[in-house]
Amino acid sequence: MKRLFDFFLAVLAALMLCIPMLLVALLVRLTSPGPVLYWSDRVGKDNRIFRMPKFRSMRVGTAAVATHLLENPGAWLTPVGGFLRKTSLDELPQLWSILRGDMSFVGPRPALFNQADLIAQRTEHGVHALMPGLTGWAQINGRDELPIPQKVALDVEYLKRRSFWFDLQIILATAVKVVRRESVSH
Questions:
Q1: Are residues 42 and 93 in contact, defined by beta-carbon separation less than 8 angstroms?
Q2: Whole-angstrom distance, CA of residue 178 vs CA of residue 26
Q3: Mean pLDDT computed over 118-123
Q4: 8 Å CB contact between 103 and 44
Q5: For the chain, what is the largest distance between any 2 Cα atoms, rounded to a whole number of angstroms?
Q6: Do 94 and 134 touch, CB atoms closer than 8 A?
Q7: Is 128 exposed, middle or buried (0-12, 13-18, 19+ CB in 10 A)?
Q8: Residues 67-78, buried b or exposed e (16+ Cβ, 10 A)?
Q9: Cα–Cα distances in Å, from 27 out to 32, 73, 80?
Q10: CA separation, residue 37 to residues 10, 52, 90, 113 (Å)
Q11: Are residues 174 and 140 in contact, defined by beta-carbon separation less than 8 angstroms?
Q12: pLDDT, tens digit, for every residue of 148-165?
């Protein structure tokens, strides 16, 4: 049932957001050299690597590491990158990953391929068996501000509590957080 919900919601969202997504793509293209999309190697269900798209918010040549690991992350942002990140508009192309079945709307955020500590802790606690999500329990409880052990603890809590109704609560809480622009560091 979750896969059907994800698929139909992704189709509906893509149809409703196609004009804003085209405008964001144009904005990215006009304000910085390089591709509109940034394809990132991410860890999916059962630790399988998949390619996840985002609207490019960082300059071409930025190291493929978690943003908080960059020295002076703001210096790497494109002219519209900060706005895209604060509004979460950079995440919209992930609808493609949901349609493909690499992601769900709700689940643990997909780790970067090189975040060995996060991957190891999630695997140890069985979280790796979940489909990664566009949003998740850890996302709405701290997002960029959480240390890895706390993030994994929230992922484990989601693993134990997951249900259709819990997913709906997380989706609604995410919408509130995005509108308020809460918990975004960069």
A1: no
A2: 22
A3: 96
A4: yes
A5: 45
A6: yes
A7: buried
A8: beeeeebeebbb
A9: 9, 21, 8
A10: 18, 10, 9, 18
A11: yes
A12: 999 999 999 999 999 999
